[in-house]
Amino acid sequence: MGEQTQVDNGKGDLPAAGETESGEPGERMVDLGALPSFLGYAIRRAQLTISDDFIRTLAAADLRPAYFYTLLVIQKNPGLNQSDVSAALGLQRTNFVVMVNDLEGRGLIERRPSASDRRSYALHLTRKGRALLARAMELQAEHQARFVSVLGAEEHDRLIRLLGKLAESRH
């Protein structure tokens, strides 16, 4: 038998096994077989845990992860155009335009005419955007520390290197 996981029956609060009104246990153990040894499955489960925590963490700054990443790239590369930022982040241009419109509407970034291409706009953080990004960076550090404490600094660094290696392999 492979690894097992506990699942909720979807009825809300779980009674102790054997105490359900229907006579069925409130929770069940499901044999996952070899699934936990599959790289994609293991990475996805870890990603969900980390992503859920990051979403909750950034909510304190009224930001979503993609918005945070966008602000960070613009801060590090002031004057990049929308296409360059979306490509660097691996985001679809159509979705990115909506995000840029929202960030601009919130007064976090501004579009300025590009000096090199009159058809595009250069993206820059506003003072408000820099302040929010500074707060978000503090929140990100708290988020990161929670997971580094689980792994330890050496394992964390090793995991980052290994994930980078996998990301660059592109089969």
Secondary-structure map with pairings?
Layout: E1 4-8, E2 27-31, H1 39-58, H2 65-76, H3 82-89, H4 93-105, E3 109-113, E4 121-125, H5 127-151, H6 153-169
Antiparallel strand pairs: 1-2, 3-4
Helix pairs in contact: 1-5, 2-3, 2-5, 3-4, 5-6
Q: Care to describe what's here?
A:
Residues 1-28 are annotated as: Disordered. It holds the Pfam family MarR_2. Residues 36-168 form the HTH marR-type domain. The protein is elongated. It has 171 residues and is mainly α. The model is unreliable at 12-21 (pLDDT under 50). It has one domain: Orthogonal Bundle (Arc Repressor Mutant, subunit A), CATH 1.10.10. The chain is built from six helices and four strands, in the order ββααααββαα. The strands form two sheets. Strands 1-2 form a two-stranded antiparallel sheet. Helix content is 56%, strand content 12%.
Keywords:
elongated, Arc Repressor Mutant, subunit A, 12% strand, mainly alpha, two-stranded antiparallel sheet, 56% helix, 171 residues, two-stranded antiparallel ribbon
Poorly predicted regions: 12-21
CATH topology: Arc Repressor Mutant, subunit A
The main pleated sheet reads as: 2 strands, antiparallel
Q: Count of helices? A: 6
Number of domains: 1
How are strands sequenced across the largest beta sheet? 1-2
What average pLDDT do the residues reach?
Answer: 88
CATH class: Mainly Alpha
Q: Supply the CATH superfamily name.
A: Winged helix-like DNA-binding domain superfamily/Winged helix DNA-binding domain
Instruction: Report strand %.
Output: 5-15%
Structural class: mainly alpha
Which word captures the global form?
elongated
